[in-house]
Design a protein that fits this description.
Elements lengths: L22 E2 L3 E9 L3 E8 L4 E8 L7 H15 L9 E7 L6 E7 L3 E3 H8 L4 H20 L2 E2 L8 E4 L7 E3 L6 E2 L8 E2 L2 E2 L8 H5 L5 H17 L9 H10 L14 H10 L11 H16 L6 H7 L25 H5 L34 E2 L2 E2 L63 H26 L1 E3 L8 H10 L3 E4 L13 E5 L5 E3 L3 E6 L6 E2 L8 H10 L3 E8 L9 E5 L5 E2 L4 E7 L5 E3 L7 H10 L3 E9 L8 E5 L3 E3 L4 E9 L2 E3 L8 H10 L3 E6 L9 E5 L5 E3 L3 E6 L1
Parallel strand pairs: 17-20, 22-25, 27-30, 32-35
Antiparallel strand pairs: 1-2, 2-3, 3-4, 4-6, 5-6, 7-9, 8-11, 9-10, 12-13, 14-15, 16-19, 18-20, 21-24, 23-25, 26-29, 28-30, 31-34, 33-35
Helix pairs in contact: 3-5, 3-8, 5-7, 7-8, 7-9
EC number: 2.7.11.1
Keywords: ATP-binding, Kinase, Membrane, Nucleotide-binding, Serine/threonine-protein kinase, Transferase, Transmembrane, Transmembrane helix
Protein name: non-specific serine/threonine protein kinase
Length: about 750
């Protein structure tokens, strides 16, 4: 079995581990090893690009060359990556590093510092039902997400349930989807190369019997985990894994209340339902099981010591004893319905030493116990023997005893008794040493016998001759014409006295167009002399060009891809000023690219015109506003320029529209400030102070007076500040100097 992705205890790698300190894929710096299994090891590592701690699962050296192992590794990455769920260990990356002369196949996963559910079982079990279901509920939720995605885990056990430290939130996560596989018609087997996949203590009966699994096998394993949480023990134990598997097939999981009497009846019923040996009576998948778990949790929250109605609803329906799916009636001599050789592969145990003859339990019978011999039967050195019943012509078979299978001892034939009651030649107290012959009348020979024998011989000879002719003599062997062109293949077949027909051509990745890729019958096959051989010519590799899907909707584009034997990959939205929303802008790969059948084509779909939110530029520089808006492909105009005592020259007084959303090419108009209005200071020199003040105030100025240095008290203006001819903003202060 593969190791779980993480383990609680961090065990350093072996001394001199060449991976420790290595930089995989120029990105992942390998640290100490934290788990090791038969196929891979898990290391704590640092993602140097994103500066985070990750777990890197590395396939053991040499296994990367095995295509089956490598494919399984990649399948694990893809299977787990499909599950985006808070209770599933995430897979970040998968790669193959060849930097040091050997393939290092690896997965990069979420690092979960903490411990496993196995540690919780050791420390806390048996635990109350409320605690057990609280721990199990995230596991069932994760499995439900997997089942909805078409995946089964196939190795549910406490070691594969990780619980983060309290410092990291204490979150429960299901790990090791390396055994997961998409559910389909041809992926129902859970055996690989004859070895059962899954830990034997959690194997569902159907996995042992016929190696087939579906979501209900995960449900069974989850029920076993729940039993272990509630009782602290596994439901079935034995001296070898084979005996444990045997008990899973032939024995129900015991009720937890047998070990923990305080457990309510409806919790017993939940365990019985999940672990029913009849998989049709288990929940169909983890989603249904999760619903049952929530019902039981609600009953526990209400403090119900028993709930007969809920228990009856959850409890599996009783199966008649003679119609159990896997168990046989006590007097049935049919071999047990599973392959001991396949089970023995789990531990490389010889099936003869597997312990399957008698597992030591009182409620099962051994093969000898199911074939009892009546008392008085003769014995040999090896033990009791049985024989079929014999009858003489005068014996009439009894109606109540089948004469073909009753094991009885051979009955001695007695001679006529002597007057003393003994048979001749015997002494008192002893059994007769001889058996008297039974007198029979001589049979008359029939003259029909030789005639019947002769007819039978003649009939047999005729049948043999006909069989030889019809089954062999009239046939010839089909010549091999593979990889020949049509003309050469036709000539070779006609030379052999055969006719030629052309079948439908077919694609081939290995045979050039126009050459023969198969015949019917095949090379070396039997064909009637003068019969017809059908040739199938190669069309060459099957390839398809990516069609032009521009302007089509997503549904129309998917239909067009399916019609050309190409697969739809994913769609990505992009803004477009020319393509209406929801239509295809382009494809990736681009139009005309030649691809193999089934290759994925991604679509770039229009999201319509890109909305452009605008900001209010009032009081800001008009030049800055113009540059920003024109960079976003908007038109900018100046609607007016105005004097403003409050807005500086060149800044925006107002805009239209002020806020909102526009689209490329739309117009924004502005009113731009000229600054305060300027007024020219008039000539006031030699004017009286009253007249000069009146003139300046009339122009909007504020007037102040001061005495000039040569002040004489005449009351006339000598000069002004600002001086005559200066342009100053209206409302400015003009100082008059008097003489």
């Amino acid at each position: 079995m593969e190791p779980p992705e993480h383990a609680r205890a961090r065990a350093p790698g072996a001394s001199g581990d060449p991976l420790v300190g290595r930089l995989l894929d120029r990105r992942y710096r390998i640290g100490p090893r934290i788990a090791r299994g038969g196929m891979a090891s898990v290391y704590e590592a640092t993602d140097t690009r994103l500066d985070r701690t990750v777990a890197v699962k590395v396939m053991h050296p040499g296994l990367g060359d095995d295509q089956e192992f490598a494919a399984r590794f990649v399948r694990e990455a893809r299977a787990a990556a499909r599950l985006n769920h808070p209770h599933v260990v995430g897979v970040y990356d998968q790669g193959d590093d060849t930097s040091e002369g050997q393939d290092t196949v690896f997965l990069v996963m979420e690092y979960v510092p903490g411990h496993t559910l196995r540690d919780v079982v050791r420390k806390e079990s048996p635990m109350p039902p409320t605690r057990a279901l609280a721990v199990l509920e995230p596991v069932v939720s994760a499995l439900a997400a997997a089942h909805r995605a078409g995946l089964i885990h196939r190795d549910v056990k406490p070691e594969n349930v990780l619980i983060a430290d309290e410092a990291h939130g204490g979150q429960v996560k299901v790990a090791d989807f390396g055994l997961a596989k998409a559910v389909s018609a041809d992926t129902q087997h859970t055996a690989t190369g004859g070895v059962l996949i899954g830990t034997v203590s959690y194997l569902a009966p159907e996995l042992v019997v016929d190696g087939r699994s579906d979501a209900r096998a995960d449900v069974y394993a989850t029920g076993v985990v729940l039993y272990e949480l509630l009782t602290g023990r596994k439901p079935h134990e034995g001296e070898s894994p084979i005996q444990v598997a045997y008990r899973h097939v032939h024995h129900d999981v015991p009720l937890p209340s047998l070990l923990q009497p305080a457990i309510p009846d409806y919790v017993d019923a939940l365990v019985a339902r999940a672990t029913s040996r009849d998989r049709d009576q288990r929940p169909a998948d983890a989603t249904v099981l999760l619903h049952h778990v929530h019902r039981v949790e609600q009953a526990l929250r209400e403090g119900l010591a028993a709930d007969p109605e809920l228990a009856a609803d959850l409890r599996p329906r009783p199966v008649p004893e003679t119609q159990s799916e896997y168990d046989d009636p006590g007097n049935d001599t049919t071999p047990e319905p599973f392959d001991a050789s396949a089970l023995a592969l789990l531990t490389e145990v010889d099936p003869r030493d597997s312990g399957l003859v008698d597992d030591g339990t009182p409620d099962r019978t051994t093969a000898l116990e199911r074939h009892l011999v009546p008392p008085g039967a003769p014995e040999r050195a090896g033990g009791p023997v049985t024989e079929p019943m014999r009858t003489t012509p005068t014996d009439a078979p009894r109606d109540d005893v089948p004469t073909s299978a009753v094991p009885v001892a051979p009955a001695p034939v007695r001679a006529p008794a002597t007057p003393s009651g003994r048979s001749p030649g015997t002494s008192p107290g002893k059994s007769p040493s001889k058996v008297a012959p039974v007198a029979t009348a001589p049979r008359r020979r029939s003259v029909k016998g030789p005639l019947v024998l002769l007819l039978a011989v003649l009939l047999l000879a005729g049948v043999a001759g006909g069989a030889y002719w019809f089954g062999w003599a009239r046939y010839t062997t089909t010549p091999g014409v593979l990889t020949l062109d049509e003309a050469a293949a036709t000539a070779k077949l006609e030379d052999a006295g055969l006719d030629v027909a052309l079948g439908d051509p077919a694609y081939s990745e290995n045979v050039d167009p126009g050459l023969v890729i198969s015949t019917d019958p095949g090379p070396g096959g039997k064909v009637l002399s003068g019969g017809t051989v059908t040739l199938v010519l190669s069309l060459g590799p099957e390839r398809y060009d990516v069609p032009d899907l521009s302007g089509r909707t997503e549904d129309q584009a998917q239909d067009a891809l399916a019609a050309t034997n190409l697969a739809f990959g994913k769609s990505v939205g992009r803004w477009s000023e020319t393509v209406p929303e929801g239509q295809v802008i382009r494809t990736s790969p681009k139009v005309g690219t030649t691809l193999k059948p089934g290759a994925s084509v991604d679509l770039v779909l229009s999201r319509g015109r890109k909305p452009l939110p605008i900001r209010d530029w009032t009081g800001k520089s008009f030049d800055d506003a113009k540059a920003a808006l024109e960079a976003r492909k908007l038109q900018v105009t100046v609607a007016d320029q105005q004097y403003s005592d409050t807005v500086a020259e060149g800044d925006v007084i107002s805009q239209d529209p002020a806020t909102g959303t526009l689209y490329k090419g739309d117009t924004v108009s502005f009113v731009v400030s000229l600054g305060p209005e300027l007024v020219e200071v008039p000539r006031v020199r030699a004017m009286g102070v009253e007249a000069a003040t009146e003139l300046l105030e009339g122009l909007g100025f504020v007037v102040e007076t001061e005495q000039a240095d040569s002040y004489l008290g005449l009351g006339f203006v000598y000069s002004s500040d600002p001086a005559q001819g200066d342009e100053v903003p209206k409302g400015s202060t003009i100082t008059l100097f008097l003489i």
